[in-house]
Amino acid sequence: MTIRTFWSIFLKILGLRLIAYCLQAIALLQMYATAEYNQGNVSESVLIILVGFSVYFLVMLTLIFKTRWIINTLRLDKDFDDEPISLDISTETVLRMATIILGGLMIIEVFPKLLDDIASFFNGSIFKEASRFYINLVQIILGLSLMTQHKLIVEYITKKANE
Protein backbone atom coordinates (compact mmCIF):
# COMPACT_ATOMS: atom_id res chain seq x y z
CA MET A 1 0.00 0.00 0.00
CA THR A 2 1.38 3.40 -0.93
CA ILE A 3 0.87 6.63 0.98
CA ARG A 4 -1.68 7.65 -1.66
CA THR A 5 -3.69 4.50 -0.97
CA PHE A 6 -3.48 5.18 2.77
CA TRP A 7 -4.90 8.68 2.30
CA SER A 8 -7.60 7.33 0.02
CA ILE A 9 -8.70 4.80 2.63
CA PHE A 10 -8.52 7.37 5.42
CA LEU A 11 -10.67 9.89 3.52
CA LYS A 12 -13.24 7.23 2.63
CA ILE A 13 -13.47 6.23 6.30
CA LEU A 14 -14.08 9.88 7.20
CA GLY A 15 -16.84 10.01 4.59
CA LEU A 16 -18.43 6.86 5.99
CA ARG A 17 -18.25 8.38 9.45
CA LEU A 18 -20.16 11.40 8.15
CA ILE A 19 -22.88 9.03 6.97
CA ALA A 20 -23.11 7.76 10.52
CA TYR A 21 -23.78 11.30 11.75
CA CYS A 22 -26.07 12.27 8.87
CA LEU A 23 -29.31 11.83 10.79
CA GLN A 24 -28.02 13.83 13.73
CA ALA A 25 -26.98 16.63 11.39
CA ILE A 26 -30.41 16.62 9.75
CA ALA A 27 -32.10 16.77 13.16
CA LEU A 28 -29.88 19.67 14.18
CA LEU A 29 -30.62 21.54 10.96
CA GLN A 30 -34.32 20.95 11.52
CA MET A 31 -34.05 22.34 15.04
CA TYR A 32 -32.36 25.54 13.82
CA ALA A 33 -34.83 25.90 10.98
CA THR A 34 -37.79 25.42 13.32
CA ALA A 35 -36.43 28.08 15.66
CA GLU A 36 -36.11 30.50 12.74
CA TYR A 37 -39.58 29.57 11.48
CA ASN A 38 -41.11 30.18 14.91
CA GLN A 39 -39.57 33.65 14.90
CA GLY A 40 -41.29 34.36 11.58
CA ASN A 41 -38.23 33.93 9.37
CA VAL A 42 -39.60 31.41 6.88
CA SER A 43 -37.07 32.16 4.15
CA GLU A 44 -34.15 31.87 6.58
CA SER A 45 -35.42 28.54 7.88
CA VAL A 46 -35.64 27.13 4.36
CA LEU A 47 -32.21 28.56 3.55
CA ILE A 48 -30.67 26.98 6.66
CA ILE A 49 -31.99 23.55 5.72
CA LEU A 50 -31.03 23.76 2.04
CA VAL A 51 -27.56 25.20 2.50
CA GLY A 52 -26.72 23.11 5.56
CA PHE A 53 -27.81 19.83 4.04
CA SER A 54 -26.20 20.64 0.68
CA VAL A 55 -22.83 21.41 2.23
CA TYR A 56 -22.98 18.33 4.46
CA PHE A 57 -23.98 16.08 1.56
CA LEU A 58 -21.33 17.58 -0.75
CA VAL A 59 -18.54 17.06 1.78
CA MET A 60 -19.71 13.49 2.43
CA LEU A 61 -19.82 12.61 -1.29
CA THR A 62 -16.47 14.27 -1.95
CA LEU A 63 -14.77 12.35 0.85
CA ILE A 64 -16.14 9.02 -0.36
CA PHE A 65 -16.04 9.32 -4.15
CA LYS A 66 -13.49 12.04 -4.99
CA THR A 67 -10.54 11.04 -2.86
CA ARG A 68 -8.07 11.35 -5.72
CA TRP A 69 -9.10 14.97 -6.24
CA ILE A 70 -8.69 15.73 -2.51
CA ILE A 71 -5.27 14.06 -2.38
CA ASN A 72 -4.10 15.96 -5.48
CA THR A 73 -5.56 19.31 -4.37
CA LEU A 74 -4.21 19.15 -0.83
CA ARG A 75 -1.01 17.40 -1.98
CA LEU A 76 -1.33 14.86 0.80
CA ASP A 77 1.17 12.49 -0.82
CA LYS A 78 3.84 15.17 -1.26
CA ASP A 79 7.15 14.83 0.64
CA PHE A 80 6.64 11.11 1.24
CA ASP A 81 8.83 8.39 -0.14
CA ASP A 82 7.31 6.30 -2.90
CA GLU A 83 8.11 3.20 -0.92
CA PRO A 84 5.04 1.13 -0.29
CA ILE A 85 3.77 0.74 3.24
CA SER A 86 3.92 -2.95 3.98
CA LEU A 87 0.41 -4.00 4.85
CA ASP A 88 -1.01 -7.05 3.21
CA ILE A 89 -4.60 -5.86 3.48
CA SER A 90 -6.61 -4.90 0.42
CA THR A 91 -8.49 -1.62 0.20
CA GLU A 92 -11.79 -3.48 0.11
CA THR A 93 -10.95 -5.34 3.31
CA VAL A 94 -10.11 -2.11 5.12
CA LEU A 95 -13.32 -0.48 3.87
CA ARG A 96 -15.34 -3.52 4.96
CA MET A 97 -13.78 -3.38 8.42
CA ALA A 98 -14.44 0.37 8.62
CA THR A 99 -18.06 -0.10 7.55
CA ILE A 100 -18.64 -2.78 10.17
CA ILE A 101 -16.95 -0.69 12.87
CA LEU A 102 -18.97 2.41 11.95
CA GLY A 103 -22.18 0.42 12.06
CA GLY A 104 -21.24 -0.94 15.46
CA LEU A 105 -20.37 2.53 16.75
CA MET A 106 -23.72 3.84 15.55
CA ILE A 107 -25.55 1.09 17.41
CA ILE A 108 -23.47 1.51 20.58
CA GLU A 109 -24.00 5.26 20.55
CA VAL A 110 -27.74 5.26 19.94
CA PHE A 111 -28.93 2.07 21.67
CA PRO A 112 -29.02 3.54 25.22
CA LYS A 113 -31.00 6.55 23.97
CA LEU A 114 -33.48 4.26 22.24
CA LEU A 115 -33.88 2.12 25.36
CA ASP A 116 -34.49 5.27 27.41
CA ASP A 117 -37.24 6.34 25.02
CA ILE A 118 -38.83 2.88 25.08
CA ALA A 119 -38.65 2.75 28.90
CA SER A 120 -40.27 6.20 29.10
CA PHE A 121 -43.06 5.00 26.85
CA PHE A 122 -43.77 1.87 28.91
CA ASN A 123 -43.61 3.80 32.19
CA GLY A 124 -46.52 5.86 30.94
CA SER A 125 -44.64 9.06 30.41
CA ILE A 126 -44.92 10.84 27.14
CA PHE A 127 -41.92 11.03 24.82
CA LYS A 128 -39.89 14.16 25.31
CA GLU A 129 -39.51 14.29 21.57
CA ALA A 130 -41.14 11.73 19.32
CA SER A 131 -38.77 12.70 16.51
CA ARG A 132 -35.81 11.70 18.70
CA PHE A 133 -37.25 8.20 19.07
CA TYR A 134 -37.68 7.82 15.31
CA ILE A 135 -34.22 9.22 14.57
CA ASN A 136 -32.69 6.78 17.08
CA LEU A 137 -34.65 3.90 15.59
CA VAL A 138 -33.51 4.78 12.06
CA GLN A 139 -29.90 5.06 13.26
CA ILE A 140 -30.11 1.58 14.80
CA ILE A 141 -31.47 0.24 11.51
CA LEU A 142 -28.72 2.02 9.55
CA GLY A 143 -26.07 0.67 11.91
CA LEU A 144 -27.38 -2.86 11.48
CA SER A 145 -27.52 -2.35 7.72
CA LEU A 146 -23.90 -1.15 7.66
CA MET A 147 -22.85 -4.22 9.60
CA THR A 148 -24.84 -6.75 7.61
CA GLN A 149 -24.60 -5.24 4.12
CA HIS A 150 -20.96 -4.15 4.29
CA LYS A 151 -20.01 -6.10 1.18
CA LEU A 152 -22.59 -4.35 -1.01
CA ILE A 153 -21.67 -0.94 0.41
CA VAL A 154 -17.95 -1.44 -0.25
CA GLU A 155 -18.62 -2.74 -3.78
CA TYR A 156 -20.70 0.36 -4.49
CA ILE A 157 -18.04 2.70 -3.10
CA THR A 158 -15.20 1.09 -5.07
CA LYS A 159 -17.30 1.03 -8.25
CA LYS A 160 -18.15 4.73 -7.94
CA ALA A 161 -14.59 5.65 -6.99
CA ASN A 162 -13.23 3.94 -10.10
CA GLU A 163 -15.56 5.81 -12.45
The portion of residues assigned to helices is over 70%
* Topology order in helix (H) and strand (E) letters: HHHHHHH
Major β-sheet annotation: none
Kindly report how far apart the N and C termini lie.
Answer: 21 Å
Output mean pLDDT. Answer: 81
Number of helical regions: 7
The counted number of beta strands is 0
Structure classification: mainly alpha
Provide the β-strand percentage band: under 5%
Radius of gyration based on Cα positions: 19 Å
User: What number of structural domains do the residues give?
Assistant: 1
Any overview of this molecule?
The chain contains seven helices and no strands. It is mainly alpha-helical. It has one domain (3-161). α1 packs antiparallel against α3. The protein is flat and about 60 Å long. The mean pLDDT is 81.
Give descriptors for this structure.
single chain; 163 residues; mainly alpha; 7 helices; 0% strand
Summarize the structure.
The chain has about 160 residues and is mainly α. It has helices at about 5-20, 20-40, 40-65, 65-75, 90-120, 130-150, 150-160.
Outline the fold blueprint.
Blueprint: H1 3-20, H2 22-38, H3 42-65, H4 67-74, H5 91-122, H6 130-148, H7 150-161
